Each structure stands twice: as C-alpha cells, then as structure tokens.
Structure to design on (323 residues):
C-alpha cells in the first residue's frame, strides 16, 4: 500500500472535489480518483459519497480522517528531521506561494537563481490555498497573511496593499465611483476563494452589503484579465496593478486593505543547506525589490518567539547598516 494515498484522501476532504485536489497536489484529476479508489480497495470501505455539490465523507471516512491527519503530520516530521541534517546545497526545494505573487512578481525575478545554485532544483507550487510547511507539503512558503504555527521560522518583510481597479474603457462607459455607495451602480468582480486562504477576502467582505457582485472568480490572473477587459471593478494587489497602464485605481482612501508578507520554513529545516540557501536568496530578493512589492511603511521587528528569531537571523543575516 502506498501511504501517499492518504495525502490524496486529505486533499479531497479539504476541497470536496477531485479537480481542486488535483490542482493542489499538482497532478491530474484521474490520478486523484485512482489513488482514492486504491485506498478504498485497500481498506475495503467506501470513503466518500459522490454528490452533486462535491465529495462528502461517509461514516467510514469520518472514522479515519483524524488518523489520516496524524499520519500526514508524522510523515512530514520524519521528512523534515532527516532533511534537517542534509549539508548538501543540492536537490529539490519546494517553494509554495500564491498564484498572483508567483506569476507577477517572483518568477520574473528568478533569472539569477540557476547561476547561484546550479545543483538546486526549485519547485514552485502556485496555489491560493496556502500549503503548510508544518505538514511537509513544502519546504518554504512566501505568503501574504500571518503564519498559523508557532513552529514556523521566518520574517515579516512589510505590507502588501490591495485596492479597487477598473479599466479606462469601463470608467469611460460607466463613470468613476466617488463614494462606496456608488458601487451599487457598478459591476464588481470579487474573489471567490475562502477568506482564510487569500487575504483579499477581508477586503471584499465590507463591500458585500454595498457593491453589486456580478461575478466571482477564484483566480487572481482571471481577475486581472476581467478588469483589463472592462468587465467591471476588480480587487487587485497594488504591485500587480502598477504594471498595467490601462487600469485606474478607484476609491483609494475608502478601500485600502493590507496584509503582512512572510517568508517561512519549519524549524527542523533550518540546518538543511539547500533550504538555508534558498531562504537567504529569497530574503535578499525581497529586500532588494521591496519598492516593487511592499508599501513604504517602515519594516518592524519580526513577531516570532525569540529563539525562532535567532534561528532566522542565522539563516539570513541582515546586511550591515551604513554608518
């Protein structure tokens, strides 16, 4: 029996569909379906009911879900502790980041990575559902939003801001809103993901009782395309909208949400040479390119436990300040 089948099982539990689970795992939908069937055959039990609204657990599935989460954590602990003693700057490093952050900011700035680390294979996992470094699904996470585990080692680099935008053509045809109440007369295209997964849900919620939500979308890339096509008013990170000359920000004082940008790994991986190397590279990249990504607010100290902050400082020492 391949114990990895339990990872597929948990992905379907969390997403309630084979296609969404496949996107998170980076495989095809038939592969997820086959792994679930293999697990059901091995256990001789049906684990899911296939319903119109998605996959729901059967009583048999309910009895093993907590055990499966425990197994997933245990396997992650084993992988991290063994990897933590690897002194080689070679091999695969899995980096998880959001679709928008990876597509529009990170990947275009990685041209120097291969030359710096020719023996490291960087696997970039673009997923709006944050993959947890605690579970072993990724080695490093570059994420917007607060970390959820005390075992995370990392640093907050500053604030990423979000706002409302519309194309010049849309505003010419429909007028420019000057107050939040004006959004009742406009088409607003909102994020359809869970609030806990992507922070812009926090921005959209206050608009729910004011604006007319004409379309929902779970892809930031598609939101950008919708805004540029003149379909309506969209929520975007400022670093994305700044590269689009045909988009205009509207109601900047009324709608201005921000979230912390974190670079994280698990404390057990801080002695892994390849992870330390990539963490240091990414930290230097964020500092060097901060103007293109973060707000102008001063960077504060990382709100991590003292022993974790010291571990982070060992991975990515701060550049000396000019005297």
């Amino acid at each position: 029996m391949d114990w990895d089948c339990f990872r597929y099982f948990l992905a379907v539990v969390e997403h309630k569909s084979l296609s969404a689970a496949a996107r998170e795992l980076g495989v095809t939908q038939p592969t997820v379906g086959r792994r679930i069937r293999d697990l059901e055959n091995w256990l001789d039990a049906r684990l899911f009911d296939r319903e119109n609204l998605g996959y729901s657990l059967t009583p048999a599935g309910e009895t093993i879900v907590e055990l499966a989460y425990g197994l997933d954590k245990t396997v992650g602990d084993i992988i991290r502790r063994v990897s933590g003693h690897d002194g080689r700057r070679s091999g695969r490093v899995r980096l998880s980041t959001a679709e928008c952050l990876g597509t529009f900011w990170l990947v275009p700035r990685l041209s120097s990575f291969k030359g710096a680390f020719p023996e490291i294979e960087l696997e970039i996992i673009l997923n709006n559902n944050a993959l947890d470094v605690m579970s072993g699904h990724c080695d490093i996470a570059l994420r917007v939003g607060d970390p959820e585990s005390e075992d995370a080692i990392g640093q907050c680099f500053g604030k990423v801001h979000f706002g409302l935008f519309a194309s010049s053509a849309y505003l010419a045809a429909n007028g420019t809103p000057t107050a939040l109440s004006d959004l009742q007369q406009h088409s607003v295209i909102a994020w359809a993901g869970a609030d806990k997964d992507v922070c812009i849900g926090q921005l959209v919620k206050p608009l729910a009782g004011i604006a007319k939500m004409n379309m929902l979308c779970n892809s930031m890339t598609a939101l950008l395309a919708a805004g540029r096509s003149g379909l309506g008013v969209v929520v975007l990170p400022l670093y994305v909208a700044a590269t689009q000359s045909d988009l205009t920000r509207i109601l900047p004082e009324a709608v201005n949400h921000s979230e912390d940008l974190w670079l994280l790994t698990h404390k057990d991986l801080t002695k892994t040479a390849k992870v330390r190397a990539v963490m240091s590279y990414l930290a230097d990249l964020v500092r060097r390119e901060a103007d293109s990504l973060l707000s102008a607010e001063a960077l504060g100290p990382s709100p991590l436990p003292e022993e974790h902050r010291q571990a982070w400082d060992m991975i990515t020492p701060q550049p000396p300040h000019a005297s």
Notes: The longest strand covers residues 152-167. The radius of gyration is 22 Å. Confidence is low (pLDDT under 50) at residues 194-199, 296-310, 319-323. The chain has three domains: 5-83, 91-158+259-315, 160-258.
